[in-house]
Design a protein that fits this description.
The chain has seven domains: 1-50; 53-140; 186-281, 2-Layer Sandwich (Beta-Lactamase); 289-415, Beta-Lactamase (2-Layer Sandwich), CATH 3.30.450.20; 438-535, PAS domain (Beta-Lactamase, 2-Layer Sandwich); 551-630, Helix Hairpins (Orthogonal Bundle), CATH 1.10.287; 632-779, Histidine kinase-like ATPase, C-terminal domain (Heat Shock Protein 90). With 780 residues, the protein is an alpha+beta fold. Helix 15 (471-479) packs antiparallel against helix 16, helix 18 packs across helix 23 and helix 21 packs antiparallel against helix 23. The radius of gyration is 71 Å and the shape is elongated.
């Protein structure tokens, strides 16, 4: 029993251990099963991932056997994957071609021997798939040594993209080469700067502009096209353009091929790659701009000189220019063009000044004028203003959408036209009412204009002139009325000289009816010729009568000359005899006379002397007026000559209580007739003595004068009024009927003037009542 218990206990212990071991084995098995299930799940997941991956594995064993999924067979156009590598080439459109298979075998064997990886791209025949085979030596854990593991990638889409990229790259290269060629061939300088803003690339135009040898030398020496301006270089400008990421454009002056040119330089940022730049030669454009500005200024200056108002409006309907006449016509304020005033606003200002016509609907009228900008035709209107001003308005549209507005003041022109019409009517009326006959001939000889007297003076019918005949036709009609038909040639010559030769000529003609005509041809400023004809029949008769009267007057003058010569003898001889007998009586040669008889004899002597003097005066005055005064000139000193005259009148001056002053140059000489000059001065001196009262004063001044001598006799006597002085100067004069001689006042002053004028001198007398008289004698 005791053995059995121990045995049972041992058995129980064994069972317990077995139970524990079984339990442990159960737990262990459960864990392994779980691990195996996890492994299977991972294997399925990895297998699924491999099947869905873009690459398919292909295992090529050393004996050429293949291991690969069926997806690769579908890529190669096969139903199933073959067992050996050599079976991949099946001909037709499935599998690989022989060349592709041979290439794959070579690469696989090389990898199996050297473990060198390879990559080849294969496109199966009849398929559009692009496969890339990337092979390597398989890991021993994957396959025994000597196997090659090839991953097959389907990069059809990538290949298409690569092909597109290759095409784009090729096109980009072509475009780049074309662009480089274009830049190189560009006529303008172009350059490229790197991110350090230094020159890296320039074209040939740049090299030529800076006068360098090659582009490399330009880049090496960093030769700038544009020099520094205000201390800023081209590289600094490019740096500013890059930092601000904006294109900088500027107009500078640079030396291009040894000449200063205006350039438009542009710096264009290209991101982090650098800065591109180019320069456009705008010298010609600038020159044209300067010429355009000069032309515009000259045009505007010329428009300012016009009398017609001109205004320019741009496409925005704003005024860009208005000359002074335009501003005056519309009473616009100064500077309105500088303010860019609109067209409608200009009309409003003109309306406020009353310089536009009165219209009922101004806004509609203004809009109607605004349509001038949109029309293609020139508009012309006539405006009548309230102040009777008439304006001619012309609106000329411009190709750029602007407008030229011209305003011409026709007020004066219309007034001149009316005046011209009046003048034409006045001229016609004047021509027709002139006593003189007139005709106007054109340069071609046709009769243009005539008055009514022309036809009557030549004895022509009005029908002959109404057709404006040629000169030959007119002369043929005139020839029949001439007393001498050959005289028509002279008329023709006068007309031709006035119209063609532009010379003035004249002539005369006798008509068959006895009338005498004088005619003259005068060239007119307009190229025509004027023929004037005057009937001088009455003048000829009057001329003949005047000739007869002139002959009668000449005979009367000869009779008067003989009369004066005879009267000079007839007057002087009796007076001399009477004077001689009176002297004999007073001298006592015939015996002593009684005192009363002696007084009578002395009175006779005085009367004879006075009458002799008057006769001498009358005869001298008559001879002087008849131009028969004899002069015997000689040169003598003037002061002693005048002194002698004063001495002879010393007693008369002293008895009258008069003071006489004589002033002059003693060496002054004159060339004159002493006797006649003495008589002239004596008359003036005697008149001064007679007119000067007691305690009066007479002054005689002898003055030198340029080209002659001046003698001035002045007194402070009673003087004469203008009427009395005029009568004194007249002396003897003819009666109004011309039949007799009237005696006005004394003969002294007229005779003195005649005697002085006979010496080519002058006598001027000025006098004032109660203040005295001054006589001025001027001798050559």
């Amino acid at each position: 029993m005791e053995v059995s218990s121990a045995f049972l206990a041992l058995i129980g212990l064994v069972l317990a251990v077995w139970t524990v071991g079984a339990g442990w084995m159960m737990v262990r098995s459960s864990a392994r099963v779980a691990n195996a299930e996890a492994t299977r799940r991972n294997a399925r997941r990895l297998s699924r991932m491999i099947e869905d991956s873009p690459a398919v594995p292909l295992l090529v064993r050393a004996d050429g056997r293949l291991e690969a999924p069926d997806r690769l067979a579908s890529w190669l156009g096969l139903d199933t994957m073959p067992e050996y590598l050599s079976e991949l080439a099946q001909g037709g459109d499935s599998g690989l071609s022989d060349e592709q298979l041979e290439l794959l075998k070579v690469r696989v064997r090389h990898t199996q021997r050297t473990a060198a990886p390879f990559t080849i791209a294969i496109t199966p025949p009849g398929s559009n798939k692009a496969l890339r085979f990337r092979g390597m030596l398989a890991d021993p854990t994957v396959s025994p040594i000597g196997a090659a593991l090839i991953w097959v990638f389907d990069f059809t889409e990538s290949e298409e993209e690569l092909a597109a990229l290759r095409d784009e790259t090729a096109r980009a290269k072509q475009d780049f080469r074309a662009l480089v060629g274009l830049i190189e061939a560009a006529p303008m300088p172009m350059w490229f700067r790197g991110d350090d803003w230094r020159l890296r690339l320039v074209n040939s135009a740049y090299v030529d502009a800076v006068g360098a040898e090659s582009p490399d030398s330009v880049v090496l020496d960093q030769i700038e096209l544009v020099e520094e301006i205000n201390g800023v270089s081209g590289a600094q400008v490019a740096q500013r353009a890059s930092e601000n990421n904006e294109t900088i454009e500027r107009i500078v002056t640079a030396t291009v091929k040894g000449a200063r040119r205006s350039l438009r330089v542009t710096d264009l940022p290209l991101g982090p790659e650098g800065i591109a730049g180019y320069a456009v030669d705008i010298e010609e454009m600038e020159e044209q701009a300067r010429e355009f500005r000069a032309f515009r200024e000259a045009q505007r200056s010329m428009l300012d000189q016009l009398s017609i108002g001109v205004a320019l409006f741009n496409a925005d309907r704003r005024m860009t220019f208005a000359n002074q006449p335009f501003q005056r016509v519309f009473a616009l304020p100064p500077g309105i063009a500088n303010e860019r005033t609109g067209f409608e606003q200009m009309l409003v200002v003109a309306r406020d000044q009353g310089r536009i016509p009165e219209v009922r609907d101004f806004p509609a009228w203004r809009r109607e004028l605004g349509d001038w900008f949109t029309t293609d035709e020139t508009q012309e209107q006539t405006w009548s203003l309230t102040d009777s001003t008439h304006l001619r308005i012309v609106a000329q549209p411009m190709p750029d959408g602007g407008l030229v507005m011209i305003a011409e003041d026709l007020t004066e022109q219309l007034a001149l036209s009316a005046t011209r019409d009046t003048l034409l009517r006045t001229r016609t009326a004047t021509f027709d009412n002139l006593f003189e006959a007139l005709a106007v001939f054109a340069p071609d000889g046709s009769l243009e204009l005539w008055n009514r007297s022309f036809s009557s003076v030549w004895g022509l019918d009005d029908d002959v002139l109404s057709g404006h005949p040629q000169a030959e036709e007119l002369l043929a009609a005139i020839e029949t009325n001439l007393a001498d038909p050959k005289a028509i040639a002279q008329v023709n010559t006068v007309i031709r000289a006035a119209t063609l030769d532009r010379k003035k000529s004249q002539g005369s003609a006798e008509l068959t009816d006895g009338r005498s005509l004088e005619y003259a041809g005068v060239p007119l400023p307009d190229g025509n010729g004027l023929l004037t004809v005057l009937d001088v029949t009455a003048s000829r008769e009057a001329e003949e009568a005047l000739r007869e009267r002139n002959r009668a007057l000449e005979e009367a003058d000869a009779v008067m000359t003989r009369f004066l010569a005879n009267m000079s003898y007839e007057f002087r001889t009796p007076l001399t005899s009477i004077g001689g007998f009176a002297e004999l009586l007073t001298s006592g040669a015939i015996g002593e006379l009684p005192s009363q008889a002696k007084e009578y004899a002395e009175a006779i002597s005085l009367s004879v002397a006075k009458l002799t003097e008057q006769v001498e005066n009358v005869l001298d005055l008559s001879q002087s007026e008849a131009g028969l005064m004899p002069l015997s000139k000689e040169k003598f000193e003037l002061l002693p000559f005048v002194t002698e005259m004063v001495r002879k009148r010393e007693s008369a001056i002293t008895d009258a209580g008069i003071t006489l002053d004589l002033l002059g140059d003693p060496e002054k000489k004159v060339e004159a007739d002493p006797q006649q000059l003495r008589r002239a001065l004596a008359h003036l001196l005697d008149n001064a003595i007679a007119a000067t009262g007691r305690d009066g004063k007479i002054q005689i001044v002898l003055k030198k004068r340029k080209g002659g001598t001046r003698i001035v006799i002045t007194d402070n006597g009673k003087g004469m009024s203008p009427h009395e002085l005029a009568r004194a100067l007249e002396g003897l004069r003819m009666s109004p009927d011309g039949k007799r001689i009237e005696r006005r006042q004394g003969l002294g002053i007229p005779l003195a003037r005649q005697l002085i004028e006979a010496h080519d001198g002058t006598l001027e007398i000025t006098s004032r009542k109660g203040a005295g008289t001054a006589a001025t004698i001027t001798l050559p």
